[in-house]
Amino acid sequence: MDSPRQDLRSALVPIAAMLGSQVLVSLAVLSLSVLMPAVTRDLDIAPKLVGVFTAVIYVVASAVALGSAVWISRLGAVRVCQIAMIAAAAGLALNAAASVVATVVAVALIGMAQGPINPASAHILTHRVPRAWFSLVFSVKQTGVPLGFAAAGILLPLLLPVIGWRVASLVAAGLLVAGAVVLEFLRARLDALLVPSGQSSGIWSPVRYALAHPQMRVLGWSALLYVVAQHTFTFFLVTYLYEHCRLSIAEAGFLLFLAQIGGTAQRLVLGALGDRFPRMMLLGWTGIGIAIGSIATGLITSDTPYWLIGLIVFAYGTVVISWNGVSIAEFAHLAPPGQVAPVAAVQTALAFSGAVIGPPLFGLIAAVAGYRTSFFLVAACVLAAAIWQIATARRLRTTLSGR
User: Which residue in 326, 351, 349 sits closest to 69, CA to CA?
Assistant: First the structure.
């Protein structure tokens, strides 16, 4: 019998394929935000619509994620990933048409692409990766999100002054098409053991199952609240440090960049730990760290030394960005046989819901009561979720030890 380490080596191709898929779709998601200043100038629309467009992406992604398990069972997970890439490519190509209607449709198509990637990846990886490596592998795959964001943030600004935003959008679309073509060469190998049955339990059955499951229910709602913290950190940090702490845009952006690097590295560390320690307990203590980081960030003032601001931001970013892969891995671990994709779809939909409701509420509260109140409320919500997970993990351990 092959050892888990040998089995993991044999799974490197599907891991790389799913990581690449995540990188490309994440690149598409951030592309509109990066290009939006140029797009809004040419189309004569308000630049602040980027916030609305981002919310629309995650609304569509959440809805599509719930229904993705049906298509994974009918078409196969790799084919669904290819369709997602083509949808994102079509959105970026349509965006190059330079009309308001085209941009709105492009946003919807990119949201459609975002939705099924996690469920499809979970379906493929759980059949190829030893359970002893679930957390690390899913965390590696989730590093595709910041890597894709970084690629968009580096590549597109370099292309903009040379070829303009329309052609830059088409270049990004071309990368996604190329990714879909590469997956076609791998599809027979990746789906060799995963023949689609053409049958599905539907959309709502997995939702009812996950929300009735004592552990999945805790993990799912906690993921929603953790994403609220993650996205408010990502989307508001630069503005907060600029307006509230009197840092320059360049200084604030550099700190966000460092935090993203720290969070990406911590994803791998937390993933490795998740294969050695109970994942729900680990997620709970990570939530404690997120709550502390949110409070510390809210306490920053214009008189706080730059080095201390940097330390707080880096520490907060390291924990708030780190947890996703471990959460998905635990959902996959708890899923009944043959139901990984539907269960992962529920986790994805709940997490994306946090991306929809979190930033607007944070911004509204900040406008009415100040940033400090917003950060403290985020900390309170995450702390409640963290304690809930720790208590559930301890209760489960007590139950198992008593048998």
Answer: 349
